[in-house]
Amino acid sequence: MRTQVAIIGSGPAGLLLSQLLSLQGIDSVILERRSRAYVEGRIRAGVLEQGSVDLLREAKVDERLNREGLVHDGFGLCFAGRTERIDMKKYAKGSVVVYGQTEITKDMIDARLAAGGKIFYEAECTEIKDFDTDNPSVTFTHDGRSQELKCDYVAGCDGYHGVARRSAPQSVLREFERVYPFGWLGVLSQTPPATEEVTYANHERGFALCSMRSLTRSRYYIQVDTDDAVGAWSDDAFWDELRRRLPDNIAEAMVTGPSIEKSIAPLRSFVAEPLRFGTLFLAGDAAHIVPPTGAKGLNLAAADVRVLSRALIARYRDNDASLLERYSEICLDRIWKAERFSWWLTTVTHRFGADAFGHRIQLSELDYMTKSEAGQTMVAENYIGLPFEAPFA
Ligand code: FAS
Ligand code: PHB
Question: Which CATH number fits domain 5-70+98-177+268-349: 3.40.50.300, 3.40.50.1820, 3.50.50.60, 3.20.20.70?
Answer without folding.
Answer: 3.50.50.60
